[in-house]
Amino acid sequence: MSTDLSTELLDVAVRAARAAADLVRERADAGVTVAATKSSDVDVVTQADRDSETLLRATILAERPGDAFFGEEGEDVEGTTGVRWIVDPIDGTVNFVYGLPEYAISVAAEVDGRVVAGVVLNVATGVEYTAHRTPDGVVARKGDRPVVVRGPAPLAQRLVITGFSYDADVRRRQAEGLVRLLPQVRDIRRHGSCALELCHLADGQADAYFEVGVNLWDYAAGALVAEGAGARVEVHPGFPDRALVVAAPEHGFEEFLNAVLDAGYGGE
Questions:
Q1: Element (H or E) spanning 88, and its range?
Q2: Per CATH, the architecture of 3-146 is what?
Q3: CATH topology for 155-262?
Q4: Which residues on adjacent β-strands are paired with residue 106?
Q5: Rounded distance, CA 118 to CA 132, Å?
Q6: Which of 53, 76, 131, 135 has its CA 20 to 30 A from that of 216?
C-alpha cells in the first residue's frame, strides 16, 4: 500500500465530500422534509440524503471510473481496480432534520478490503477530519492539525459515547445494557452520528465509543481517523446478530471492551 495511492484517494474523497456538503447546506437552508422511512418509522431518509449520494457517486466515479462503490442509499457498483468507495451521504440524518449541528458526509476508500483513506466532514460546522494510511501508520488530522486520543484514565473516569438503534426492541436491550455499564464509567454521551463520534474520540473529546447495529458506511472513515489518533477499533458480534463496534485508546482498550461485553452488548 503506497502513500501516493492513499494520498490520491484521500484527495478524491475530500473533493467529493466538500461538494456534497455544499449541496446538503443548500438543502438545509431551503428547508428539510422527510422523503421516506427505512428500518422503522423513526429511521428517516431525506431527498438530500439521496441527492448527496448521487453527487458523491458521480464525482468519485468520474475521476476513478473503474472503482467499486458502496453507499447507504443507492445501488452497489462493482469495480475492477481493487478500490472500493464506502460512503454515507448524511450520517446523522435525524440531526439534519431537526437542525442539530451534528451531521456529516463520510467517505472512505478501501484497497483490497482495507480502508486506506477517509474523510468525515461536519456539514453544519465545516469541521473536517481526514486520515490516510502510509507504510509507517495512519496519519489523522482535524483540519491542518494532528489529532490524538486522551491519555490513560481509570474506567470510572472515562467519558463514553454511544448510540441507539431505530428498532424499538434493540433500543430497549441497549438501555438495559446501559443501566449495567453507566455506574462503571464517568458518564455517557450520545450525539447521533457514528462517524463524528469516532472523530470526537480521536480528537480527545471522549475516552471511548461503542455501539450495536452500525453499518460499514457509518464507521469506515471515522474508524480510520480514530486509528490514526491512537485508538483501537474492533468489530465484534453484537445482539441481535448485529455488529458491535468498540473503539478506545490502545491503553485500557481491553478493560473497556470487557466492560461493554459484561454489560450484555455482545452476541448470544
A1: strand 83-91
A2: 2-Layer Sandwich (3.30)
A3: D-Maltodextrin-Binding Protein; domain 2 (3.40.190)
A4: 88, 120
A5: 6
A6: 135
- 260: closest CA among 219, 225, 209? 209
Question: Over the stretch 132-191, which tens digit does the pLDDT of each residue have?
Answer: 999 999 999 999 999 999 999 999 999 999 999 988 999 999 999 999 999 999 999 999
For residues 165, 166, 171 and 175, what is the CA-based torsion angle, rounded to 10 degrees? 70
Tens-digit pLDDT profile for residues 72-82: 877 899 999 99
Residue for grid cell 430497549: 172
| C-beta contacts of 75-80 below 8 A and 24+ residues apart | none
Q: Would strands 68-71 and 83-91 be described as parallel, antiparallel, or unpaired?
A: parallel
The span from the CA of 254 to the CA of 166, in Å, is: 28
Q: What is the pLDDT of residues 193-214, one digit of tens each?
A: 999 999 999 999 999 999 999 9
Whether the model pTM is above 0.85: yes
List the grid coordinates of 56.
Answer: 458523491
pLDDT at res. 236:
97
The answer, yes or no, to whether residue 3 has pLDDT greater than 90, is no
Helix (H) or strand (E) holding 113: none
* Domain locations along the chain: 3-146, 155-262
Query: According to DSSP H, which parts of the chain are helical?
Result: 3-30, 47-63, 93-98, 168-181, 194-202, 216-228, 253-262
User: What is the distance between the alpha carbons of residues 10 and 265, in angstroms, rounded to a whole number?
Assistant: 34
* Active site members: 72, 88, 90-91, 93, 218
Number of H helices and E strands in the chain, helices first, is 7, 14
- Examine the pLDDT at 52 and tell me if it is beyond 80: yes
